[in-house]
Amino acid sequence: xALLRGWGLTLGKRADRPAARLEKDSDDPEVxxxxxxxxxxxxxxxxEVLEARPEGEGRTELLWxxxxxAGVEKWITGVAGAEPGAALPRLVAGxxxxxxxxxxxxxxxxxxxxxxxxxxxxxxxxxxxxxLYEAAELEPASAAPWYCLQISGRGxxxxxxxxxxxxxxxxxxxxxxxxxxxxxxxxxxxxWGGSHEEMHAFARASVLDxxxxxxxxxxxxxxxxxxxxxxxxxxDAAYIRRPEVAASLNEAADHSYRxxxxxxxxxxxxxxxxxxxxxxxxGDREAARECFRATEGRVSEFPWSYLxxxxxxxAYRERRSAAGR
Length: 325
Known about the structure:
The chain is mostly helical. It is 64% helix and 1% strand.
């Protein structure tokens, strides 16, 4: 994979563009409140904030805020035991064990993960699945347990058929669930046992089947970034600069953030950043500038971590300058 070396860019400030900054907590005060409550084992506040946020309005991000907090596993199972008929504490317990499991595995390649790490990883994911199935039974209309089961299932390598069923269970309840589609895209990509062809077909169909203005346009951008990432230096640039890649990106953009019905709701920053990176690498400077302008300097960690894992903002700045913005 090319690492975009030797550009010789001047990254000085320009008066007509905002300073780039990593978006943290989505500028949502409830995220800050949740972090403190989760760290302090304040279930009453955690429940209040989560129950006040409907599915489809940023609730998934709030769930991750709680479940990525170290120590939640020490108290949430006690809450679930004390509330035998409640789905929410089981959902939180399940997703915390998913997050805790991936912490044990780390993001290293499989060959660099020890047998002991994998054992802990799988044990925690199996525990997660028990909690999540209980949550699904107690609240059958909720998409959240099935979305979480998509993630645990990928770690447990449940196979494409079960993974597809879990995705379908999620979208039956929430047809345009962005995070569920993101998980299924990963499930069908080459590195997780799928193929580039299946990944691109899934991304395009998901976008075009959704109403105009959909956030799902991001799937097409990410699919091209995934294939670019899988290639060696040289072939990666040749691939991403193919005319058909730019055409595919523009088709998705027209049905997504360029559409008059597009609304800046939860997830929009990452969507625009994904298109900005893809258009920039594809050499479509005008489309890239449009995206960079729309981000207003807000940088999402993904996908810029693909270029610079230690400093996504630096990667964003470089590509923004390369696009002439």
